[in-house]
Amino acid sequence: MTNGQELHTTLEWRVHAPDGTVEILVQEELGPRWRLFRWMHGLVAEFIIKLSTFMLKAWNIGVNDPKKFIHCLKVGTALSLVSLFYYMRTLYEGVGGNAMWAVMTVVVVFEYSIGATLYKCVNRAAGTLVAGVLGFGVHWMAIQCGEEIEPIVLEISVFLLAAAATFSRFIPTVKARFDYGAMVFILTFCLVSISGYRVDQLFEMAHHRLLTVTLGASICIITSMLVCPIWAGQELHALITRNLEKLSESLDAYKCVLNSKTSEESMANFARWEPAHGDFKFRHPWKQYLKVGAAIRSCAYCIETLNGCINSDIRAPETLKKHLKDMCVSLSSYSSNVIKELAAMMKTMTKSSSIHISIGQMNIAVYELQDALKNVPSQVVVQILQASNNSINKETTNTRPLLEILPLATIASLLIELASRVEVIVKEVNQLADQADFALNSNSGSKETHSIT
To answer: Which of 62, 129, 215, 331 has the lowest tally of Cβ within 10 angstroms?
Structure first.
């Protein structure tokens, strides 16, 4: 400034004293301790917010699916039971101090469903037993060959058996049912065959190891089956039923159907390991559920394409829209009715005596729509030809008039294709009903009509 005074760019607080003087209050800078306190306070507050958000999400997961919370309690119960081998001297001495293997067995084999738990228990026990016997035999044979040849025999046996077991995991049948057992076999065989114990000590160790694995697996099976059992077979049955219900209710439901293939295959694999329970008898046709699921997904793919056509901008002549509208709505309604009846069959595990009537109505609607596509009103054809001639007279290659009717024709064709895929679902569900001996229900069948267009 011209007066040589400095320009204050910060805010000032002024206090007017009674004697008329003015005192300017200068803000003191925060000290390092105060700044550290504020930083730590913000850090703690942010941690508390994130922790509360996480706890809220975890609570919602438990509320939405209480079975997950029950599963956690079952795992805790099983581990508490197996830990008694540490706290009770009699039990601890009975397993030779190898109680840790029982704890490890519970941790690695206890799964959400009974089928998955049985799958891992049987695989672990079988893999441990076979590997222990072979490892003991190889170890004994290597000792008989002398100290010089012993390492060679052990190395060759480890290479051959580990390579063979690993290759077996690429075979589809073995991978689906015994993949975990092959992995346990490789681990146990290597531990037993290359151990430095004498034969008598090795036999005792293998015996205790197999005993602890059996005890841990037994505790898992008993806990899983007695405490709020969760059957993979029931989960698979409910999944297929829900997919049918969602497929019949609206077009948006097809997305969950398309993503359920992995879950269906996993549940079907685990369901084969479960004993008869409830309405699911011995040798229940679990493979047929996969065929039903594949038919449902095939129908969902068609609906996905249909959904894209419906959401597109259709500028076909109004006369043509009115000509096809009623038939399309009728066909979609009857198709939805058939799927709802199939869902009711699956849910109640009963055969429907009225499903053939619904299929007949759907087929009649297909014939009517096909006939409507063949007999397009002449005035609509004239309008399209005139529009095309005008484009040609203007010396352009514009085919817009013809392209405008393609989405509508595609929708009609997709509805016809959808009806044919619904019939495939009917075929697969009926085969399931025959194989599983569904009871006959004369009152089954839904009379409600839901349009999917």
So the answer is: 62
